[in-house]
Design goal:
Helices cover 43% and strands 15% of the residues. The protein is α/β, with parallel strands linked by helices and 310 residues long.
Length: 310
């Protein structure tokens, strides 16, 4: 590490201590720590403070976490690092619980991002909670929210009612095709994850969704980050244009399915509700029932009221 970076990271640790030390960090608690998904600079000051403070750091991969700690000058012995991953999470959770019961502060970090979303950690958290021990979240980097933030799909309109996190689809072609067929009827945005060696197969499956928009996030936060929005049917061709596009980790946001509006039905529902309810309430309920734009319904309601009063 160059002296310049060493100085920067030392400054980061000092800033972390200043910014985060005012809060209470009780012993005997599990701290779930979000870590960078690629860009080392995305670590939070609070995460650095807790990683310094922790008596034990449970990790998806101790080598990966040790590299992160060393980059920031956090010194932990091998005895303070505990491997807790998908193959030993239930057993590892019991070791963590024993250490918590001894009064230790235990931090848990997966290899990248927020634990227990797609990475290990959910079984560990469930076991700790079942043992009636406290669990403290340290929010931070997540590939899911990073992709959603650039997809532009989480609006306030009734037609954009949140999102669904699906993660990795099955590696079996039949099951993957069935899953994509089911997603065709999903009105909400859908977040998918995929590895480079399976991305072409997923692209072929998603292409059956035709013109439905898809935002592709490849290597998010890393040097060769690439973000594109295109029709699902164009995804295989997008990959083939450049062989490098099949490399790296992928986060995909399938945009909400288009709602085919029945203007006549909207008007009928609105008219019935206006006859019994205040204007704003009638508009709100009609939007929720039909998925129509609230602004458009409000204008239509004013016109109906004006016509009725003429």
């Amino acid at each position: 590490m160059s002296s310049v970076y060493a100085h920067l990271y030392a400054s980061a640790l000092a800033a972390a201590s200043t910014a985060a030390s005012g809060q209470n960090y009780p012993p005997g608690a599990l701290y779930v720590v979000a870590t960078p998904i690629g860009n080392l600079a995305d670590i939070s000051l609070r995460a650095l403070h807790v990683l310094q403070l922790a008596d034990t750091i449970a990790c998806e991969d101790t080598r990966h976490t040790q590299a992160l700690l060393r980059a920031y000058g956090i010194d932990k012995s091998s005895a303070q690092l505990l491997a807790v991953h998908q193959h030993n999470e239930s057993q590892g959770a019991q070791v963590v619980i024993e250490r918590l019961q001894q009064g230790q502060r235990v931090a848990y970090a997966s290899d990248a991002g927020t634990p227990a979303v797609s990475d290990p950690g959910a079984r560990l958290v469930a076991a700790v909670r079942q043992a009636r021990l406290p669990v403290v979240p340290l929010p931070g980097v997540s590939s899911v929210t990073a992709a959603l933030s650039v997809a532009g799909v989480a609006g306030d309109d009734a037609q954009q009612g949140g999102f669904v996190f699906v993660g990795f689809l099955s590696s079996k072609s039949g099951e993957r095709a069935s899953a994509v067929e089911a997603l065709a009827g999903e009105a909400r945005a859908v977040v998918l994850l995929e590895a480079p060696h399976r991305i072409e197969a997923l692209a072929t499956a998603l292409a059956t969704l035709g013109e439905r928009p898809l935002t592709i996030g490849r290597e998010l936060t890393k040097q060769f980050e690439e973000i594109a929005t295109l029709a699902a049917q164009d995804f295989p061709g997008w990959l083939q244009i450049d062989p490098n596009r099949s490399r790296g980790e992928f986060v995909l946001v399938l945009h909400p399915a288009a709602v085919v509006a029945d203007a006549g039905a909207e008007q009928r529902v609105l008219a019935l509700l206006l006859a019994e309810l205040p204007l704003k309430t009638a508009v709100k309920l009609t939007a929720e029932i039909t998925g129509a734009s609230r602004n458009a319904l409000y204008e239509a309601a004013l016109a109906m009221k004006k016509g009725a009063g003429a």
